[in-house]
Specification:
Elements (H helix, E strand, L loop, with lengths): L8 E7 L7 H12 L3 E7 L5 H11 L3 E4 L13 E2 L1 H6 L4 E5 L2 E5 L2 H10 L11 E3 L3 H13 L3 E5 L3 H9 L7 E5 L4 H4 L5 E4 L16 H4 L7 E4 L8 H8 L3 E3 L1 H17 L5 H11 L4
Parallel strand pairs: 1-2, 1-3, 4-6, 7-8, 7-10, 8-9, 10-11, 11-12
Antiparallel strand pairs: 3-5, 5-6
Helix pairs in contact: 1-11, 4-5, 4-10, 10-11
Bound molecules: NADP nicotinamide-adenine-dinucleotide phosphate (NAP).
């Protein structure tokens, strides 16, 4: 346990609900290993109380916090500065205190990219397929733009939301194309990066997959299958893609990497990534 003293500083995560958040597990494990005198606490904050809560954070000297559903958009007007990445995504997930006020960024983009950057692929030749067009898909699109993918295919089930999603990307260096799930059999054989950003296959519906097996079987050997879901680990989608010879990346790695980047912003020190990874795996009983 962290030894709390009179000089212990406060970090945390805001959301509603918040009790299932894995962030306190990995951040407190890291802070303890780093010997940093901080604690990281879950704060359950209703949407209507956000402004009051952030004013309270200022008063009690909170140093920084993570932001999750439903506050990722509503936090933005309460900040004095927002990074270009967070503006592009349209959501903030990490906030830190400065002399001029609260600053915010979105570490999901770099978190998504971290495992991909360990692979040596020519991203300018790859057209990723992103399943889903919600909040997480926005961070994945920005990540694919940063990789230098010239075109990005988005697959969604709701035509109106899909069109709105496409129209929301103005002046992007990559072209965003939209498709419906019935077009996946033609799309999948052509891609080297297939990313699931839908919750399909997430616990407790672990026998579901966002792509039918007969369609997933068309995935090229050596293509990357990336699932943002972290429980179960692996998901059925990843297990089936692995059988097909794909390189698989799970959502736990993205969760871990986005958290590590946030912790470095708050402490200005490199966090112990392996300790964070092991703490998550132990908590989720994955070891
Ligand atoms: P969201 O904003 O609600 O978006 C979900 C997307 O999935 C929407 O496009 C939705 O389509 C689609 N969808 C939902 N149910 C579907 C179904 N049965 N069939 C087909 N499409 C379906 O959620 P989000 O915040 O983007 O999160 C999505 C997933 O990513 C969650 O599992 C979340 O845990 C995970 N995530 C992981 C990380 C990480 O660090 N690993 C970070 C962020 C999110 P409609 O709009 O048509 O409903």
């Amino acid at each position: 346990m962290t030894y709390i003293t009179g000089t212990t500083q406060l970090l945390g995560v805001i959301g509603d609900p918040i009790k299932h958040s894995l962030s306190p597990v990995m951040h407190n494990a890291a802070l303890q290993e780093m010997g940093e005198n901080y604690v990281y606490v879950p704060f359950s904050i209703k949407a209507k109380d956000l402004k009051t809560a952030i004013a309270g954070f200022e008063t009690i000297g909170v140093k920084g916090f993570s932001v999750t559903i439903p506050h990722k958009l509503e936090i933005m007007p309460l900040l004095c500065e927002i990074t270009k990445t967070a503006k592009l995504v349209g959501a903030v997930n990490t906030v830190w205190h400065t002399e001029t006020g609260w600053k915010g960024t979105n570490t999901d983009v770099a978190g998504f990219l971290a495992p991909l950057k360990t692979l040596s692929h020519d991203w300018s030749q790859i057209t990723p397929i992103i399943l889903g067009n919600g909040g997480a898909a926005r961070a994945v699109v920005v990540g694919c733009v940063e990789l230098g993918c010239p075109e990005i295919h988005i697959v969604g089930r709701n035509l109106q939301k899909l069109a709105e999603f496409q129209n929301s990307w103005a002046n992007l260096s990559s072209k965003v194309n939209i498709f419906t799930p019935d077009q996946l059999p033609e799309l999948i054989p052509q891609t080297q990066l297939l990313v699931n950003t839908t919750p399909v296959g997430m616990y407790p519906k672990t026998d579901e997959s966002p792509v039918e097996l007969r369609v997933l079987e068309k995935l090229a050997t050596g293509a990357i299958a990336y699932d943002l879901i972290y429980t179960p680990n692996p998901t059925q989608f990843l297990a089936q893609a692995r059988q097909k010879g794909a390189i698989i990346i799970d959502g736990l790695e993205m969760l871990l990497q986005q958290g590590a980047i946030a912790l470095e912003i708050w402490t200005k020190k490199k966090p112990p990534i392996e300790i964070m990874r092991q703490s998550l795996k132990k908590h989720l009983k994955l070891n």
